[in-house]
Predict the 3D structure of the following.
Amino acid sequence: MPRTGYTLFHLLFAALALTGARPACAQNHPAAAASTPAESAHQHPIRLNHLKRLDERLSKTPEQLRAQCRFVSDISTAPPPGIVALSFDDGPEPGQTELILAVLAKHKVPATFFMIGEKLRRHPDLVAKVQAEPTLLIGNHSWAHPNFHDIDAQAQRDDILKSEGAQPLQPSQPGQPTASTLFRYPYGNSSCESNALLHERGYRIVGWHVDSCDWAFDKDGEVDAKEALSCGVLSQYRKDFVGHVLSALRARKGGIVLMHEIHPNTLAQLDRLIEQIKAEGFRFVRVDDPALQASMR
């Protein structure tokens, strides 16, 4: 969509949010599970980050954003039609990683886990469970999950290099284990300096086509108007997490889906979400599928 149309649409939606209007929803869905400590610690910074991202997109031109390498994680190119790659950030998380693995195994669905280095070190048993499944892949999600827009270039470099030491070896070809060369930025926030370092070290940067916004849906399964605006949840899906993800996948004709291990909406709705994605006729792949290489940076 041209920038003028994008801005006008969001300004109109912002007016709705600021007035406190609450669009009606067609149906009710089960409430999300209770919040976890990891989720609670994550929600405040991610909310602030989404609002900052929205403000930057409205106040800067696409050319300015590209020159500053700010948001390479938002994949603007179309994905290959008909395929979906599920991805889970911020693990491993005791109790939740196992539940996600059980649902994936039930449906025989491949997926990718972008794990935080310091949590990898704390939970080697969970890492081993993911590695034991040949349809699953582990990617690098930094060492300590900093916001790369809030730290200087040296701190960004230090975090990336430290995270490399925690990455588990994984088979790329039979008998040839290798550390992951897939990296996803915390909060999706990138910089030119870190992009250059990652490419120099052989990484591909993995973003997403569809943001599930699992963090934004509250304990009652609803997202408020301002947060719906910040992460693109249409008004009719503000009480429908699965409907939001399906709507976005239909619009993009597939793609890489961003979710989190630590948010209850992912756990509570994952089984139904996978069933509905299958019913739409999509095929599941990992993010390293050859068809998705053009979507990486």
In short: The chain is about 45% helix and 15% strand. Residues 12 and 162 are 44 Å apart (CA to CA). The chain has a mean pLDDT of 85.
